[in-house]
## 1
Amino acid sequence: MQILAGQISIPTTRCRADQLTHLHQLANRLRVACDDGVPDIIVLPELAAQEYSDDAFDCLEALDDDLGGPVVEAFTELARELGTAIAFGMARRAGSRRHISQVLVGPDGRLAGVYDKLHCAQFGASGEAAHFSPGEQLLVTEIAGWRVGVVICYDLRFPELARRLADEGVELILHPVAFTRDFSFASWHAFVTTRAMENQLYWLSLNRAGAEWGQSLFCPPLVDDDHPTLTFGTGEEWQRLTLDKAALREARRRLPLGTDRRADLDALPMWTPD
Amino acid sequence: MQILAGQISIPTTRCRADQLTHLHQLANRLRVACDDGVPDIIVLPELAAQEYSDDAFDCLEALDDDLGGPVVEAFTELARELGTAIAFGMARRAGSRRHISQVLVGPDGRLAGVYDKLHCAQFGASGEAAHFSPGEQLLVTEIAGWRVGVVICYDLRFPELARRLADEGVELILHPVAFTRDFSFASWHAFVTTRAMENQLYWLSLNRAGAEWGQSLFCPPLVDDDHPTLTFGTGEEWQRLTLDKAALREARRRLPLGTDRRADLDALPMWTPD
């Protein structure tokens, strides 16, 4: 499987016109990025369809969209034109609620999956919980013969979520993020490495570009000196990532976490003095 | 709470006499290390009472011990003499089984807890599973007013174990290890940082000294640029670590993982196309 991972620059968007200009320019950059060949999937960051800031969140009435609107339409048309799946982030309106969502469309332009962020952050530079509602569903979908799960940014901090997806047979986690340089930045990469390895799957943690963002991380299912992680810079960057089922099998053979895991853990008693 | 963490050198031990010489010399070094004041607890690595190698594992008949034997006696006498708790690793004989155990004795010399490693490793340089049986109990004990849990080396790879201890109110995890420079070494520190932060507790991951070992890690409950981890060198090293309940509370206030965690995660359905 080949991924084209776009750590993209996103301009100021405070109204629909700003946003549509961004999407139009982004589509042009995506066409260029695909000149060297069309990947199985193009992956874009959390809320890729707009600026990430409290000021932009105050304009969500103008920037959000449902699955039938112009944001999704722009990406589905592009997916069809290029003949590739696209995973992109948007503020999704659903009834009276608004979600931080990652939407996957297939190369035929059809909806391949929607995931609404389960844990909306409210700490450091993140004021999401004041503007968005947490999701109520998990997503596992199939892209180019691979089982793909999605979690978004802060979701990373909760081990049970990736574990549940791994137990559903997921081989690749797409983790669109908006990590800015607050105190939570320092531990981000350690968490990604741990999640990839403890679940023995590929993990792409994709940020937006910029001096305050950047440093996206791609982890193979076993990270060691011979299988390092790939760290992006801070500018706009397009990385082609090749995933290999044999590497997945080899990771699971070398480090037999699946066999060694204790099925009886929850039932184990506590030690007590005699 | 103050910990004295001993990343100790351990000589060749292939018979009981080797081992008792090691324990005698270690006691002398511990006395010196306590000259500057007696900590609440002295922590020593996995299998601190003996060499860690396949050759030593072939001599376990001579090196193992039950809770009434000379190994435990050496440490309980020292705990009583110094007036501090001690957590040490040993090959523990229990009936027909043998465990990789961490034993905690209180400053009165009484047994404060026993933990038998739940996951015995069999990969890379680790041939434990051929010599040891996995444990069947968890340990949470109290030391100097702190709730303390223990996990050993490879146990680190399984998120559910530390999570269960954290849910029991544990504030400090003692993680004695024997990490040598095989492929598993590269990701060790990322795992420790993640486990400390995701459970919002202190984590001491303590290795034996030596060019092929070393680099023990101590993590506060929130790791960021202002609260870095402490990494040991490779030689024998005694570190005094001060733990603070206010720092625990502050970590949990700043990053509200406990409140944000989804109690309904296991029950969430999967997305399906309309």
## 2
Amino acid sequence: MSLAEMQAPIHRDEAAIAAVVEGLRATYGDRLSTSQAVREQHGHTTTWLKTQAPDAVVFAQSTEEVSDIVKRCAARKVPVIAFGAGSSLEGHVNAPGGGVCIDLSQMNAILEVNAEDLDCKVQAGVTRKQLNTDLRDSGLFFPIDPGADATIGGMTATRASGTNAVRYGTMKDAVLGLTVVTATGAVIHTGGRARKSSAGYDLTRLFVGSEGTLGIVTEITLKLFGQPEAISGGMCSFPSIKAACDAVIMTIQCGLPVARIELLDPLQVRACNIYSKLTLPEEPTLFLEFHGSESGVREQAETFGGIAEEFGGSEFRWATKAEDRTALWQARHDAYWASFTLRPGAKGVATDVCVPISRLADCVAETQRDLDENKLLATIVGHVGDGNFHVLVLVDEEDAGEVERAEAFVGRLNGRAIDFGGTCTGEHGIGQGKMKYMVKEHGPALDVMRAVKQALDPDRILNPGKILPEA
Amino acid sequence: MSLAEMQAPIHRDEAAIAAVVEGLRATYGDRLSTSQAVREQHGHTTTWLKTQAPDAVVFAQSTEEVSDIVKRCAARKVPVIAFGAGSSLEGHVNAPGGGVCIDLSQMNAILEVNAEDLDCKVQAGVTRKQLNTDLRDSGLFFPIDPGADATIGGMTATRASGTNAVRYGTMKDAVLGLTVVTATGAVIHTGGRARKSSAGYDLTRLFVGSEGTLGIVTEITLKLFGQPEAISGGMCSFPSIKAACDAVIMTIQCGLPVARIELLDPLQVRACNIYSKLTLPEEPTLFLEFHGSESGVREQAETFGGIAEEFGGSEFRWATKAEDRTALWQARHDAYWASFTLRPGAKGVATDVCVPISRLADCVAETQRDLDENKLLATIVGHVGDGNFHVLVLVDEEDAGEVERAEAFVGRLNGRAIDFGGTCTGEHGIGQGKMKYMVKEHGPALDVMRAVKQALDPDRILNPGKILPEA
């Protein structure tokens, strides 16, 4: 499947689209936009996929409005695409058949914080940073941190995770319940505030990660965590990726409750040194963070120090002061942008895969060999406690041969991850960009996914052209 | 919905059933049984629901055989019911329309243990104790422990949990991937060995807890955990249920990574004293267990001691020796059987609900008042770190009035839990017994569950008459 095929245009019923847009304009007035700039921004993709703009963007302010908009689209079989912060990476918000984009960013109220139960309820447009700012004085925090300041709705839709997942889980684990607008415009509530339930099908988990193709998430009930009494962190260099990965495996196997354990390859370290003005040795490096009691984090760090030594790691370099730790993790979060310092003007092709951690070192090593052989410049960072790593290929867009080599590389990388018993995406999602790997990864299970889609959205109005390749 | 309605017989196509059974007999010979004893044992329910036996029981030995049996049933629209250990509590394995029961207990091979990745793959008939016995020398363990020695397949089907869930999660969290035979007899694989994935719909979580109504689980890939370096535990009495629950809330809020925190009401303590020859004060009591490093468990226990004191708890009584700890937890696991010592010859009506922990004390207090007002004898135990508690009503089956009062009580209890923002079952599942609460708990979301069922099993051959009440 070529890039063009992945983004294949979908049949448009021009009259239906025009009628729905005009009707919405009458109701939503200024909160509906058909300007080219707004439409393009809402079909914008952060990476290499081309923008496919919707016909109109409506800024919804309530679940009832989302329901109203979906009902109108359903009546005329017009595509409807939910939009949060637009930070997804695989063309999730593109509109290959045009239609109506529902921008949820104005639905940004934090509806409830239940400190005793360690949960909260937010509207879909709340961002993760907004939530944590709001929680700051409550003693609680929400741990899931994809690179961007994504919305909770978008993170739910893509089953996002981030650097803390090894300790605190992913959106699959964090979401207790949802309010969802279905393809008919019905409003349903899934899950609830109980910590566990065996009452019927797990619709919550069905909608988490469904990328707006089964329903539009408007409210999310989330698990929260107590802010740890103490946090410590630091970094450690290793003679090889293999040695670093072996240290990670041992760490996880020992049951050390590490909060973050991130791998940066030497090229990524160089980029971070330049961008974030650091002076780290340009070697395979682990960034770590420990959460717990004062004595607990000390003990964890000592245990890790012993493990690192066993695998030839450098002495553990502490970021003892809070500001040093913040600087370290800011550098990690800026790794994506830092990479571009290695090749200013280049286009970034970002991809992520996830493998069982025992296969991580081999998978990364093969990937580096593949990059070298194909003369591609790329940085690698990984949430290695989960076996998840990201490759950012820096490509000269004007060089057709290089673009082709990069696309072919991404294909091999994803196939390799699946062959290693892993998945073509640990946290970015499928969108348009990874549809072509769905058959290899899921085989006949794809038919079951298609049956679920057919049952919940028979007219295929919800974010069409995503996740499921044509049969 | 009355008990009779919950167990309403389903139309039987006698000729189709006879033809399928005869065909299966020709293939499976001795591994097919139509004896009344075997059939009744496979429709046996541990609690108050009446047995509805299947027409035949086949002992399958492979996924291919399960596929073959389902295909034959599908061809004639004959019901097919998966059976593990038969330890479910809500009539899950009953056959209100007869049909074929597939007993998976002979599929009890542990297929893989991947120590480096902390995962394993087992056939559905492996029991939790069998798995842990097998793992003993590996340094790993599987934490999920419903009271019975259930099969992993059955635990997957009911989204089971147990005393360790507060620390290690439920089957929702433990299952990484599945092999499932669908309603057409197709064999699919969901999930995989990667620790996380954003690649499409979460079919794994859709099948977990679906009680054999969407597909038959034949193989399960499970997360494992390292055996903790140190374990400590003990118990503590409180002046009231409220005080005990407040101590639990504080414990969870502090982020204390308690491995088990179990509440026993005074009546349950009395029963355990008799049955397990203990001498505990007959007061609201918490049993606790801490996992971690030597110093970590000491610190956790000290922290908990401080919390207990704050809420008027007794001094923490340590079970320092491993055999004392084993005796304590054996008593907890035997609590169900112990309850019958309070009223020998009684029938047990077991039910479980789960609420946000801030509502737990109120929910338990109202429940005890309800029991008193209705002159019902019942014990209460709870996995209170999750807000989940069990009530076992001891009923004289011969006393129709008492049976009716018990049924009405269970109805109020389930309604109360839902009204408190909770669920009608934390871990037992719906089966037949809790179908009547599905409308109240899920509202219009039930239509989405029905659509999923219709999509995956349009002829309703998979465990019919369970989970979803007739619309």
